[in-house]
């Protein structure tokens, strides 16, 4: 473990990297000098215009083996840095400073991270790959803070690689470029801007199983023209989530895929094409897609005195199953978000969840509600317990109709109102939870009031 200095303008790889005066020229040489758990300080240039660590062919950054708690750390520094080590005010910040630039030139060339058990953190560095930006290592954790990342081809997530980006800009100029999930890898981005200079078609896709992606507070509004699909090719096992993100003018959460994997889903919470949401904004703007259907926020078909976020008004969950995927008599069910209500322990309470649709009454093997109560032995209670994988499912039969609801008023689809009710004595004071499972292959939309009523 050591501290190494790198100067893209005045350094030399014949130096030992021990001071700014003896700084090395290339990032790889400085990383090798620093070793596992070491720190590399990179000065962009003394002249004010960033020079680059450049190569005319594919480049591989090999990171020495390190631990997650003590990774190799590479820090970009501003002009005129003389302190050894630099102070925090000398560190480059995305959007404020020109960053040291690590570049791969020439078409068809890749920028690859490699090394056994590679754990590394990059702060204030700009990366350019003319083709793929990828990891060739396994069991790695790569973090970028205040960085800028450009690529033309594909951003690969490889086997057991975790990429984390904090306040980073990621952009490309190629309409065919996207994030390609493959292997048991994950990308997380918190804040920053994701941009396309041309009309994009897809943001995330996959070609093998077990990749995943999570985006929080990311600005996608500059991601090309209208019509962006957030996630496609869901035939593989990859969950993708977007939380409090700003989107292009129009977008689609998920591309249709008849072979979509049972473990794949796309979830968009608090997203908007107007502005990035904060945690004080409306709970509305919820979209969810998996192999069994879609769940969306509905603001027209709502129950009187039902759920209301007190910001933009009343809402419900619209559950629309895929007729080709969710089959009655199987465990393939579309599931609503969890709904919760605070209950007092020691006294019996009755909980009710209300649903409606405009087509026909639903049976217990079409739709059911799962309830959980806080209990002293952590047990759960279920109302309408219909598990299509066990024998008693056939005994219930399709003729058993969900309880009618004659008292509620819904705005429009109010001809077939029904409800789920359960009575129990909670073991302690806490949250009771419920979620609706819908496995009707008719394609009819059901509206769920997220407000659980206590009586």
List the helices and strands and how they pair.
Elements: E1 3-7, H1 27-34, E2 39-43, E3 52-55, E4 59-62, E5 72-77, E6 101-104, E7 111-114, E8 119-123, E9 126-129, E10 133-135, E11 140-145, E12 148-151, E13 154-157, E14 161-172, E15 178-181, E16 186-196, E17 202-206, E18 212-216, E19 228-231, E20 239-243, E21 251-254, E22 265-269, E23 286-290, E24 293-298, E25 316-321, E26 334-335, E27 339-343, E28 349-357, E29 367-372, H2 392-396, E30 416-424, E31 430-438, E32 446-448, E33 453-454
Parallel strand pairs: 1-2, 2-5, 3-6, 4-7, 5-8, 6-9, 7-10, 8-11, 9-12, 11-14, 12-14, 13-15, 14-16, 15-17, 16-18, 17-19, 18-20, 19-21, 20-22
Antiparallel strand pairs: 22-23, 23-24, 24-25, 25-32, 26-31, 27-31, 28-30, 28-32, 28-33, 29-31
